[in-house]
UniProtKB/TrEMBL annotation:
Pfam families: EamA (PF00892). This is EamA family transporter. The keyword Transmembrane helix applies. Residues 1-57 are annotated as: Disordered. Keywords: Membrane, Transmembrane, Transmembrane helix. The lineage of its organism: Bacteria, Bacillati, Actinomycetota, Actinomycetes, Kitasatosporales.
Length: 330
């Protein structure tokens, strides 16, 4: 969870974020996020990692593992505040944290933006907030593992629809089988939660395309930082309502802030470190494992048990993405 995005992240975010791993044609920015919802911290001009030695690559791999675990752990901790803040309140706090980090790092020159630059930034801000809100609402209803898996269909769909190889067709069939199995009708199926997960996937796919446009029109990470700040402003009324009408407990706020740090700030900084030390293909391949990490964290941290069919579905979706990336020529 790029969450997750933040979500990675995760991502992911995970933020990712929180970023998406599966389809990043040059010269666009890498399509991955540290956590679900986390803008791509890597400028387009730096999409290729610098040559690195064995020790640096090992450090990069260790950082990727830490980033993914941080993303999903942040989402799990954030869910602990749902009874008090609700998914909307937790997302609001997470957006505030992400905005503070990105604005401090990128320092966008907002006054120099033209309307041609502002248009995709505004759309990215809207998608950014909707993506995180739909993901966290899905986590509240169907659990961390299934929500992150459904959200992961966004970048997977972008990758597979742009491909023309037989292996990608096979990967798409495997992923589709996993989705059908995951969403099969059952007495306990939460269709609203599934729909929220698919909405998060659609937002993640939109995020990839918009982030590519923003990266082409706005230098560096300024566009992503501006979008993050605007998204935080959109959630400002939510924060004021919580403080004035339903004062939250210090514990709940602490959980939400921890989610913002672990699922947004940590993956963002970790991914900037990682992308300089490992190839983009290896990065994307590892990000494929985030749904599995989310399911494991949900099991160990939240006691969210999945049946063997759910595990098989998650495995099929992860395998489809891994197959597509591993067989891609660089």
């Amino acid at each position: 969870m790029r969450a997750a995005p933040t979500p990675g992240t995760t991502a992911s975010v995970r933020s990712t974020a929180s970023v998406r791993p599966t389809a990043a044609p040059r010269p666009a920015a890498p399509e991955r996020r540290a956590a679900p919802g986390l803008p791509d911290p890597q400028p387009q001009s730096q999409s290729q990692p610098q040559p690195a030695g064995r020790s640096q690559r090992l450090a990069g791999v260790a950082t990727m593992i830490g980033s993914g675990l941080s993303t999903q752990t942040g989402a799990a901790i954030g869910s602990l505040a749902f009874p008090v803040l609700g998914p909307v309140g937790v997302v609001a706090v997470r957006q505030y944290v992400a905005a503070v980090v990105l604005l401090a790092v990128a320092r966008p020159r907002l006054r120099s933006f033209t309307w041609w630059q502002w248009r995709p930034v505004l759309l990215l801000a809207l998608v950014f907030g909707t993506m995180n809100l739909s993901l966290y609402s899905a986590i509240d209803r169907i659990g961390l593992g299934l929500a992150v898996t459904l959200e992961f269909l966004g970048p997977l769909a972008i990758a597979l629809t742009a491909a023309r190889r037989r292996v990608d067709v096979c990967a798409a069939i495997v992923a589709a089988a996993g989705v059908v199995t995951l969403m099969r009708p059952q007495p306990s199926t939460d269709y609203a939660g599934m729909a929220l997960g698919l909405l998060a996937a659609a937002c993640w796919a939109s995020y990839i395309l918009l982030n590519r446009t923003v990266g082409q029109r706005v230098p560096g990470a300024q566009g992503s930082a501006a979008a993050s700040g605007l998204s935080a402003l959109m959630f400002l009324p939510v924060g004021l309502d919580l403080v004035l009408r339903h004062p939250p407990t210090a514990e709940a706020v602490g959980y939400a802030v921890a989610a913002g740090v672990l699922a947004s700030a940590v993956p963002y900084l970790a991914d900037m470190f990682t992308l300089r030390r490992v190839p983009a293909q290896a990065f994307g391949l590892f990000m494929s494992v985030n749904p599995v990490l989310a399911a494991v964290v949900g099991l160990l941290g939240l006691g969210q048990h999945l049946g063997w069919t759910e595990w098989a579905s998650i495995g099929a979706i992860v395998a489809a993405n891994s197959l597509s990336i591993a067989t891609r020529r660089t």
